[in-house]
């Protein structure tokens, strides 16, 4: 029932992809669990200080699953020098054949990926970016809507408009990212023309995710209005939990505080410490609006089974069965 060009392209059972989670959360345990459950798990490459660290995580993931999984390479500006070619090479040398890029155009790296016979999907925030990605030769685009965690464009366009706009703009498959946590969101995305969905927040609040249990329980208390957008002033929009610390960062940005003073406060080390200890008082916590729909901490298998079961029931109901 849920076979699409995405399931065929990636060789997976269901068109459900685990988003590239920051703060060291996209690790082998979670990634392999998603792939083993019929979806596509994804390692976040820049969670590792070196390409060798990425290699080790890929090898660990391969020891836990024989199913396809992906590696994300985020091309956004970083606080440390990054040799992106080394990360691409590490993933491809280790046999990964599905690569996700984000942040900037993947055009400079298309040859290395394609020469290795790999598939590349690129994360975009609007129809014009989807067209550009298609033009440079990517195989699919994941469309990040206003509701999403991570880095949506500052255009504030909801998925109900953004997804069909991108579907109409390109011939390659479109994956919907943002605002999806259950069968209702899954069916909605497919009805808008997407051929797969990408979920971050839902998989963050799962048993296999390495996020501290204290933080998971805290997230369960949040509603759909408990997030906010920051970093617009530095052209790197991000949706995070609305906390006193996040409000402080936003105020600094709005009054023109130099980026050099803000960066130490939002470093990756701060985020990793918060995720591993559950102490979120001095760190930004990336999460989507869909956190307001998440009320439990199931296994990844239970999440996947629940989505497919609920989606099947919705379709049968719509068909009058």
Taking the sheet with the most strands, its summary is:
8 strands, parallel
Q: In whole angstroms, how far apart are the ends?
A: 15 Å
Helix content: 40-55%
How many domain units?
2
The CATH class name of the largest domain reads Alpha Beta
Tally of DSSP helical segments: 14
Quote the beta fraction. Answer: 5-15%
Total beta strand runs: 10
Strand order of the largest sheet: 1-8-7-6-5-4-3-2
Description:
This protein is α/β, with parallel strands linked by helices and 321 residues long. The protein folds into two domains: 5-211 and 297-318, TIM Barrel (Alpha-Beta Barrel); 213-277, no CATH class. It has 14 helices and ten strands. The chain has helices at residues 5-10, 28-36, 51-64, 84-93, 110-115, 127-136, 159-169, 183-191, 201-204, 213-220, 244-254, 259-262, 268-277, 300-318, and strands at 16-18, 41-44, 69-74, 98-102, 119-124, 140-144, 174-177, 196-199, 227-230, 238-241. The chain has an eight-stranded parallel sheet with strand order 1-8-7-6-5-4-3-2. A two-stranded antiparallel ribbon has the order 9-10. Strand 3, helix 4 (84-93) and strand 4 (98-102) form a beta-alpha-beta unit. The longest helix is centred in the C-terminal third of the chain and has 19 residues, at 300-318. It is globular and about 55 Å long.
């Amino acid at each position: 029932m849920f076979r699409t060009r995405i399931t065929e392209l990636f060789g997976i059972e269901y068109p459900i992809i685990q988003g590239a989670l920051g703060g060291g959360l996209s690790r082998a345990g979670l990634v392999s669990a998603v792939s083993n459950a019929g979806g596509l798990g994804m390692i976040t490459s820049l969670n590792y200080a070196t390409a060798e660290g990425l290699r080790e995580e890929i090898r660990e993931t391969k020891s836990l699953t024989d199913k396809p999984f992906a590696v994300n390479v985020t091309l956004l500006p970083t606080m440390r020098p990054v040799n992106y070619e080394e990360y691409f090479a590490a993933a491809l040398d280790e046999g990964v054949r599905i690569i996700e890029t984000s942040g900037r155009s993947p055009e400079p790296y298309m040859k290395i990926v394609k020469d290795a016979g790999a598939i590349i999907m690129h994360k975009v925030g609007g129809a014009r970016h989807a067209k550009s990605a298609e033009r440079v030769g990517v195989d699919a685009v994941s469309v990040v809507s206003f509701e999403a965690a991570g880095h949506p464009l500052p255009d504030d366009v909801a998925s109900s408009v953004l997804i069909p706009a991108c579907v109409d703009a390109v011939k390659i498959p479109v994956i919907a990212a943002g605002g999806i946590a259950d069968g209702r969101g899954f069916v909605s995305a497919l009805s808008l023309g997407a051929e797969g969905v990408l979920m971050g927040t839902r998989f963050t609040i799962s048993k296999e995710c390495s996020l501290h249990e204290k933080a998971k329980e805290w997230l369960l208390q949040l509603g759909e209005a408990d997030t906010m957008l920051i970093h617009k002033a530095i052209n790197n929009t991000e949706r995070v939990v609305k906390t006193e610390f996040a409000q402080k960062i936003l105020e600094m940005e709005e009054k023109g505080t130099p980026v050099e003073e803000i960066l130490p406060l939002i470093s990756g080390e701060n985020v990793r410490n918060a995720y591993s200890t559950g102490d979120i008082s001095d760190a930004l916590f990336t999460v989507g609006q869909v956190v307001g729909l998440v009320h439990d901490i199931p296994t990844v298998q239970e999440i996947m089974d629940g989505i497919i079961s609920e989606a099947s029931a919705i379709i049968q109901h719509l068909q009058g069965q």
